[in-house]
Amino acid sequence: SPSTHHKQLAAPLSPATAPGSPLLQAILSNEIDWEAPELQPLSPAARDFLERLLQRNPVLRPNAAEALEHPWLAVEGAANDMPLEGSVVQRLQRFATYTHLKQVVLRMITEDMRTRGNAPSFSSALQELFAAYDKDKSGTISFEELADGLRGQGYVVNESEVRQLMEKMDMDHDGNVGGDEFLATLIDWGQVMQEQEWQSYVDQAFSRMDLDGDGFIDLDELLSELPAAYFSEPASEDERIAEAKRMLREADENGDGRISKQEFYNLLRDNVAPDSLSMYDDRLSNNMAAMAV
C-alpha cells in the first residue's frame, strides 16, 4: 500500500531499492497516503514540511536554502532539546511509533541505566512527574491516574486516546505503568545514544537476549522475551510465535532468520517515523500552549 511504501522511505538503503526493484518503482510512482495512521501524530507544520520536500516535481520542491526557511525548522527545529514540561503527549506518541522489539529493548536499557545509577537527562523531572501521576503512591500508574494526570496538566485527550497511550506504555500488560516503563517512553533516546555509555547499554541488552551466546538472537530467544503477560489478552502458543516472528522481521535485515549484533544496533538507531518531538501534536489546550511558549 502507499502507506507501507511511505514507511519504507525512511528505512536504510537495501537491495530492495536497487534500480528496477518493485519498491523503487512504488516510491517513484505511488502517491503517499497522508491519511495513514502513522502520520496522524505529525504537527501541521511538520506535515507541510514533509509534503513540500516529497514533491516529485522539482519545480515545486524547495531547494536547500528554501527548506531552511520553512516555519517548522525556524520555529520548531530545536525539538530534541524540548523540555519535559508540555511535551509528555508528544513523547508518548513518538515512542508508540517504535517497533515492538525496539520498545522491549529500550525498556531493558532503562532498567540497566537505573541499575548502574546512570540517570538520563531530566531524570529528576521524570521522577517528579511519575510521583505526581501516581496519586495513590502505589509505585505504578493506573489508567485513571494517567488520564487525570495528563488532563490536569492541560493535555486535551479523550478516553480512547489515553487508552492507546496506556497500551504502549504498559509493555507487560499488567494494567499499570511501572517506573521503568514510564521512563522508557519519555526519555530522549536520541540524546542517550550520543552518550559514551550507549555502546555498553546495547551490548548488555544484546547479551541478555542472546541466551546461548552464539552472537545472534533467534526466534526461540525472542520467545523467551514474550511471556503471556506481554499480551493484553491471553495468548496461545501460536500467537506468541507469530508475534516473535514479527519482532524478528523488524530487525532481520538480511532475512537469515536471526538478528546479528549489527542488525540489533541498526534497529535501535533507525526509525520508520520522524523522531523529532516537534513532528507530533502536543495536544495542549490553547491556554497551556500559550504558557509553554
Distance between the termini: 39 Å
N-to-C SSE string, H for helix and E for strand: HHHHHHHHHHHHHEHHEHH
Main β-sheet: number of strands, strand sense, barrel status?
A: 2 strands, antiparallel
SS content category: mainly alpha
Q: Strand sequence of the main sheet, in spatial order?
A: 1-2
Low-confidence stretches are 1-15, 75-81, 288-293
Total of DSSP H or I helical runs spanning 4+ residues: 17
Strand content: under 5%
Shape: globular
Strand elements, count: 2
Mean pLDDT, all residues: 80
- How helical, in percent, are the residues? 40-55%
Specify Rg, calculated over alpha carbons.
20 Å
Topology (SSEs and partners):
Blueprint: H1 2-9, H2 22-29, H3 44-53, H4 64-68, H5 71-76, H6 88-96, H7 100-116, H8 123-133, H9 143-152, H10 159-169, H11 179-186, H12 189-192, H13 198-209, E1 216-217, H14 219-223, H15 237-251, E2 259-260, H16 261-269, H17 286-292
Antiparallel strand pairs: 1-2
Helix pairs in contact: 7-11, 7-13, 8-11
Structure description:
The chain is 53% helix and 1% strand. It has a two-stranded antiparallel ribbon. The protein has 17 helices and two strands. It is globular. α7 packs across α11 (179-186) and α7 (100-116) packs across α13. It has helices at 2-9, 22-29, 44-53, 64-68, 71-76, 88-96, 100-116, 123-133, 143-152, 159-169, 179-186, 189-192, 198-209, 219-223, 237-251, 261-269, 286-292, and strands at 216-217, 259-260. With 293 residues, it is an all-alpha fold. The model is unreliable at 1-15, 75-81 and 288-293 (pLDDT under 50). The two termini are 39 Å apart.
